[in-house]
């Protein structure tokens, strides 16, 4: 939590070239790789599952930050851990037993994250603060890349940082991060910024240089 980390979301990458896209963003300054798993039930979109995480693992040297937008999540935690995820983030809204899910993630040897939808208050995680390594504040409604930043969430970030006190817990921002919105959330106490469209715009696997400029601009 000592510096700002950029975690590009491969949701905005070329789906036919994920391995090369991961290698490109790492070479060009990404700190983590953010992997968005969607089930078409918890969120209105479908992406991929543990087999994709496993296939990508050899292409990612840094942290694989896996964001599970699935309900239920518990039946799949072991598969994602075995696939090589470093961080597994579940949604607070995805099931009735958040504490159990977070415990299960740590027992599998991963860092435990909890994500909060825009309508979910910071206080929803009051009693699990010691069970988390990362809190992901959704600054869009999850499901799609390229949506606009919901400014009301900045106050939630400030509140969470105060609630966390001196705990070494990351606050990650997911959705609508751009060079304009990044300073707002960083000032409020966020230290990991997920960015999809703002990283991948203007470039391609054949011409990845813009990714580097985009990361530096955030
Ligand atoms: C949204 C995903 C995000 C998304 C961010 O459901 O969790 O990670 O890819 O995309 P941008 O940065 O384009 O808002
Ligand atoms: Zn995400």
TrEMBL record:
Q: Which cofactor does it need?
A: a divalent metal cation; Fe(2+); Mn(2+); Co(2+)
Gene Ontology CC entries for this record: cytoplasm
List ligand-binding residues for substrate. 9, 67, 143-146, 174-176, 196-197
Family matches, as PROSITE patterns: RIBUL_P_3_EPIMER_1, RIBUL_P_3_EPIMER_2
Gene Ontology terms describing biological process: pentose catabolic process; pentose-phosphate shunt
- State the pathway, as annotated in the record: Carbohydrate degradation
This protein's source sits in the domain of life called Bacteria
Please give the function described in this protein's UniProt entry: Catalyzes the reversible epimerization of D-ribulose 5-phosphate to D-xylulose 5-phosphate.
Q: What is this protein called?
A: Ribulose-phosphate 3-epimerase
Q: Supply the source organism's classification.
A: Bacteria, Pseudomonadati, Pseudomonadota, Alphaproteobacteria, Rhodobacterales
């Amino acid at each position: 939590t000592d510096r700002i980390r950029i975690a590009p979301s491969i949701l905005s990458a070329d789906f036919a070239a994920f391995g090369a896209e991961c290698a490109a963003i790492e070479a060009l300054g990404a700190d983590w790789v953010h992997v968005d798993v969607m089930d078409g039930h918890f969120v209105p979109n479908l992406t991929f599952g543990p087999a994709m995480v496993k296939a990508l693992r050899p292409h990612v040297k840094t942290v694989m930050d896996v964001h599970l937008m699935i309900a239920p999540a518990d039946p799949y935690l072991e598969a994602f851990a075995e696939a090589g995820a470093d961080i597994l983030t579940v949604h607070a809204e995805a099931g009735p037993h958040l504490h159990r899910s977070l415990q299960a993630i740590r027992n599998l040897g991963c860092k435990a994250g909890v994500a909060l939808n825009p309508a979910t208050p910071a206080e929803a995680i009051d009693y699990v603060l010691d069970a988390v390594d990362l809190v992901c504040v959704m600054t869009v409604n999850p499901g799609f890349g390229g949506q606009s930043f919901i400014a009301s969430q900045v106050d939630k970030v400030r509140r969470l940082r105060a609630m966390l006190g001196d705990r070494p817990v990351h606050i990650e921002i997911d959705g609508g991060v751009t060079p304009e919105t990044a300073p707002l959330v960083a000032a409020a106490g966020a230290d990991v910024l997920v960015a999809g469209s703002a990283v991948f715009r203007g470039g391609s696997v054949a011409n990845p240089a813009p990714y580097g400029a985009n990361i530096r601009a955030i």
